[in-house]
Write a structure and sequence with these properties.
alpha+beta, elongated
Length: about 300
């Protein structure tokens, strides 16, 4: 998500270096492709030596500000103190309502009506620094994690130009202090967060979870007996004509694979992923699942 904003900064010739975690080889390759022939320094960073290496690198590049985009590690206080109030983070969610590691996943899973990007000053407390700029994105009922990431990337590129205007001022604004009364923190999703519970979740919640897992987790987990697979996409198949137990499979008129939900709605399973590959949902019948069987 960071690359479009990085390109904007480079085009305006204010980018002195790009620091990339050693775990993100894809971004490193992209940056070396786009900027390898320029005078922009590209530095690979490791978490255990982050403070020491970054401090030396910032002195070499004579950087005045550090902009963080999708950066996965907490910045040590010793490093923050070298450039007080000049570490600035692009948080891909609204603050203070959506603190945490993956607000994109949470905003879709929890069926929020909007999300956005918050640019804030970095402090020793995660996602709690004063807010400089906020831009919102409306969420429609078809948005997936991947689509929202693309929208976020494009918005961040636009917002980087707003931020450049602030950075060109004599003094950076203090920013708006976050309201702790509105604050919510969401931990990174674990395995239990990406499993469909047919007994407790209604059709809209299931659809939202599936979209929140597409494509980064290759869908949301479900199982039939001892066989585990993931559902990547579903569509609404209308009202259930029976009081079927949630998770019950039925065959639709066009050989569609329907699953009944607790709110008496049916979902058509459009795409699945298993160890065997990616398939249309009605391939579940070819794998031995029959009408009347249950997903659990």
């Amino acid at each position: 998500m960071a690359l479009p904003a990085i390109q904007i900064l480079a085009q305006h010739q204010i980018l002195s270096g790009i620091g990339i975690p050693d775990t993100n080889t894809e971004l490193e390759q992209e940056c070396r492709h786009f900027f390898g022939a320029s005078n922009i320094s590209i530095q690979k960073l490791e978490q255990k030596t982050l403070a020491e290496v970054t401090l030396n690198w910032l002195q070499t590049t004579q950087s005045h500000y550090v902009l963080l985009m999708t950066f996965p590690w907490k910045i040590p206080a010793s490093l923050l103190n070298t450039l007080p109030n000049k570490f600035i983070n692009f948080h891909y969610g609204l603050l203070p309502q959506m603190r945490g590691a993956d607000p994109i996943f949470e905003s879709i899973r929890r069926q929020f009506n909007e999300t956005g990007i918050t640019i804030h000053i970095v402090t020793s407390e995660i996602d709690k620094g004063p807010i400089l700029i906020t831009q919102k994105i409306l969420l429609d009922k078809h948005i997936t994690h991947g689509l929202l990431c693309t929208r976020m990337a494009n918005l961040a590129a636009q917002m980087s130009q707003q931020l450049m205007h602030l950075l060109n001022q004599t003094n950076l604004p203090d920013g708006e202090v976050q309201s702790e009364h509105e604050a919510m923190y969401y931990n990174r999703a674990n395995l239990n967060d990406v499993i469909i519970n047919w007994q407790t979740m209604d059709s809209k919640s299931i659809d939202a979870l599936i979209r929140a897992c597409n494509p980064w987790n290759k869908g949301a987990y479900t199982s039939h007996g001892n066989w585990n697979f993931r559902i990547i996409a579903v569509t609404d198949a209308g009202q259930s004509d029976t009081n079927s137990t949630p998770g019950t499979i039925s065959r639709g008129e066009n050989n569609e694979c329907h699953v009944h939900c607790k709110d008496n709605r049916k979902l058509n399973i459009s795409i699945i992923h298993s160890e065997e590959g990616f398939f249309e949902g009605n391939m579940l019948f070819e794998f031995g699942i029959k009408s009347g069987n249950y997903l659990n």
